[in-house]
């Protein structure tokens, strides 16, 4: 695989980042994952807009504009002949060559790393069969709206889900679902209203979430952006999650309680198909 590190395209075994990099020592970094269909990027401006915001919230320099970042993404897709999968981008504050909590001088070069990951996204088992989730206390930090590389807790939550025989975890705070460990959480009430939590510091503003909200509006579905409890989701008509790499994926059980008839819901399936169609149309 060819990867990108600080201005160079190199074979992955030749890629080098300092052990003093703040991304490595302090998780002082942000990231984005953009999906690729038929060799083209999905929701790219949305992902780069969020990257810019994450960096700004952390006073981290981002000396590449959207056009330069698009060129790097496209070059990696080309060099790796990627038809379907993801491009991962990570930006860290770099390092002044020592371990220090204080931010280094603003002229310290940041570290930018990108790599591709081939994966079947449209025809995935979870997409067609749905996933089972278990709830976990949301013990992440209080600025989940910033897409940082501090992913130890989500990794622990996913391992707990796996140990319980489930596929993924939903995070719960004060009895209310915040979001999935790596996706946004949705439910459909029995009167046909789509519900997903409102944006705040408590959740990541999902790019897929925003597009699905647009699609739902175009399909004249009723939508409410508000918090919902685990019990409300368990007794909902349908549940699903959204993310760049899972698109719209039905949730068929929460803590071993089946949702609806225990099969992927009709609205989730429609939204998944519509999202894929719209993404293909908008891909660049
Ligand atoms: N929430 C969290 C915690 C995530 O890690 C992700 C995946 N990046 C999402 C939501 C979904 O965001 P997006 O649709 O932009 O992939």
UniProtKB/TrEMBL annotation:
It comes from the Bacteria. One of its GO terms (cellular component) is cytosol. It catalyses: L-leucine + 2-oxoglutarate = 4-methyl-2-oxopentanoate + L-glutamate; 4-amino-4-deoxychorismate = 4-aminobenzoate + pyruvate + H(+); L-valine + 2-oxoglutarate = 3-methyl-2-oxobutanoate + L-glutamate; L-isoleucine + 2-oxoglutarate = (S)-3-methyl-2-oxopentanoate + L-glutamate. It holds the Pfam family Aminotran_4. SUPFAM superfamilies: D-aminoacid aminotransferase-like PLP-dependent enzymes. The keyword Transferase applies. Its EC number is 2.6.1.42, 4.1.3.38. Its cofactor is pyridoxal 5'-phosphate. Pathway: Amino-acid biosynthesis; L-leucine biosynthesis; L-leucine from 3-methyl-2-oxobutanoate: step 4/4; Amino-acid biosynthesis; L-isoleucine biosynthesis; L-isoleucine from 2-oxobutanoate: step 4/4; Amino-acid biosynthesis; L-valine biosynthesis; L-valine from pyruvate: step 4/4; Cofactor biosynthesis; tetrahydrofolate biosynthesis; 4-aminobenzoate from chorismate: step 2/2. Acts on leucine, isoleucine and valine. This is Aminodeoxychorismate lyase. The lineage of its organism: Bacteria, Pseudomonadati, Pseudomonadota, Gammaproteobacteria, Oceanospirillales.
């Amino acid at each position: 695989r060819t990867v990108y590190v600080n201005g160079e395209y190199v074979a992955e075994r030749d890629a080098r980042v300092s052990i003093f990099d703040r991304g490595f020592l302090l998780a002082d970094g942000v990231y984005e994952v953009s999906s690729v269909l038929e060799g083209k990027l999905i929701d790219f401006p949305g992902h780069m807009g969020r990257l810019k915001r994450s960096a700004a919230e952390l006073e981290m320099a981002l000396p590449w504009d959207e056009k330069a970042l698009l060129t790097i993404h496209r070059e990696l897709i080309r060099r790796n002949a990627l038809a379907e999968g993801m491009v991962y981008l990570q930006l860290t504050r770099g390092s002044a060559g020592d371990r220090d909590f204080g931010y280094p001088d603003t002229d310290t070069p940041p570290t930018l790393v990108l790599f591709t990951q081939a994966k079947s996204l449209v025809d995935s088992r979870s997409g067609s069969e749905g996933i089972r989730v278990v709830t976990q206390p949301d013990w992440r930090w209080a600025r989940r709206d910033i897409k940082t590389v501090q992913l130890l807790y989500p990794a622990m939550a996913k391992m707990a889900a796996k140990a319980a025989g489930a596929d993924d975890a939903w995070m719960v705070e004060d009895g209310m679902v915040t979001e999935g460990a790596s996706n946004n959480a949705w439910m459909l009430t029995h009167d046909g209203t789509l519900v997903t939590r409102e944006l705040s510091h408590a959740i990541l503003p999902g790019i897929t979430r925003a597009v699905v909200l647009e699609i739902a509006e175009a399909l004249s579905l009723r939508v409410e952006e508000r918090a919902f409890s685990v019990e409300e989701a368990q007794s909902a008509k349908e549940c699903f999650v959204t993310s760049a790499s899972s698109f719209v994926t039905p949730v068929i059980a929460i803590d071993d309680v089946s949702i609806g008839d225990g099969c992927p819901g009709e609205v989730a399936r429609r939204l998944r198909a519509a999202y894929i169609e719209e993404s293909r149309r908008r891909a660049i």
